[in-house]
Amino acid sequence: MAMIVSKLTSKARTTIPQAVREALSLRDGDHIAYAVERDRAVITKACEMQTEPPLATFHEWSSEADCKAYRGL
User: Domain extents for the chain?
Assistant: First the structure.
């Protein structure tokens, strides 16, 4: 697996490389999530949540698997 690198600007911004955008199916307006694991970060496509999710009180239904299963409904 090749390492993909991008540069961080002085304003802490970076461009997500095309190969990463394609792998995660990222489009304009999508949200991304970061999980920090010791000395590295994992980037994933975040679930698109409505401003007030109808099932927000049911935290057991808010896993990444649930987000994937119900995305686009």
Answer: 18-70
CB 30 within 8 A of CB 16: no
d(CA 38, CA 7): 21
- Written as one string, the DSSP assignment of 18-29 is HHHHHHTT--TT
Q: What is the pLDDT of residues 27-47, one digit of tens each?
A: 998 989 899 999 999 999 987
Torsion of CA 13, 19, 23, 24, to 10 degrees: 20
Q: What is the pTM of this model?
A: 0.59
45: helix, coil or strand? strand
Asked if 67 contacts 45 with a C-beta cutoff of 8 angstroms, the reply is no
Q: Are 26 and 45 in contact (CB under 8 A)?
A: yes
